Amino acid sequence: MRRLLATLSLSLLPGLVGASPLLDPRAVPDSVARPLATAVRADRARHPEAYRRVADLEGLRPEFYRRSRAGRPSVAIELRALGPEALLPMLDALALSGYPRDLSADERSALRLGLLEAVGNLGDARALPLLRGVFSTATEAPELRAAARGLARVCQEADRRALMAATGERRDPAASALGRCAHPEASRWMVSQLESTVAPSHAAALAQGLAESASSWARPGARSSMDAPLRASAARAVIRRWRELPAQRDAIGVAALSMGGPEMLAAVREARRDAPTEAAPGLAAMERALLRDLRR
Q: CA 256, CA 283: separation in Å to the nearest integer?
């Protein structure tokens, strides 16, 4: 059935013979592929230019990316600029039609990840079935992060619960993405996990998730997912983990500064009172940076 659907989709765009979907077939069962193929057939007639643009990305042309500073394929910025009209063309490339020419391994990987990130950033519920499939089947950390962030961007209850329940290689990508929900349940869960976890990588991921939610509770007038006591608990938990996990200090310190606010400043000042000698300079630097931000 997948092969038939891909063939039908390809037949509507000349020049794609031999192309193949970018995703593992396990991520796109028939229950996802069938309605997507129907939607793509109708959408392609309305927005042919969007399909053409997705099928001809400058960042995948060797003559272009080899002259760039990075020297490797990159399409994230280009895809983001295409906007909401490109949602179905991007889903089509991921799950049905693929790309109209053979790609190197690096080009294919860059395209797959760029599409997943762009689709997730749109926050469109039509992408959820595909993102769920990717999150449940992918094995590469960047793709797991992209799928988790897309699910958290929409933040339906079932997806929020699935992210909180994630284990194994999916646990940390899910934790770092949950801040995008800006939801009280997710915020309480992240703080509780950060207070109790003993795994350094999980602590860093949770701190990053709390930093992601910072925009919803550190700026006046923004929608808040955390009340004042929870903000204070989050700040204390982040700083305690910063002290306890030297190897994770860079990541957790960035998260602490991103969170900011008077609660974080209070947590840093409290930690300075009995900080070990080796931690004192870092805490002092954080205090100065937080003060500068609060005075702006």
A: 11
Which residue in 237, 155, 162, 157 sits closest to 202, CA to CA? 237
The H-assigned helical ranges of the chain are 2-10, 30-46, 48-54, 62-65, 76-80, 87-92, 105-122, 128-137, 141-154, 157-164, 171-177, 184-196, 200-212, 228-244, 249-259, 261-272, 280-295
Q: How does DSSP assign 196-229, residue by residue?
A: H---HHHHHHHHHHHHHGGGGTSSTTS--SS-HH
The full DSSP string for 245-290 is: -GGGHHHHHHHHHHH-HHHHHHHHHHHHTT--TTTHHHHHHHHHHH
CA separation, residue 258 to residues 44, 210, 265 (Å): 41, 9, 12
Tell me the per-residue pLDDT of 169-220, one tens digit each, with 9 for 90 and over.
Answer: 999 999 999 999 989 999 999 999 999 988 999 999 999 999 988 764 544 4
Cβ proximity of 196 and 168 under 8 Å: no
Q: What is the pTM of this model?
A: 0.89
Express each pLDDT in 137-149 by its tens digit: 999 999 999 999 9
Q: Which amino acid is at 137?
A: T
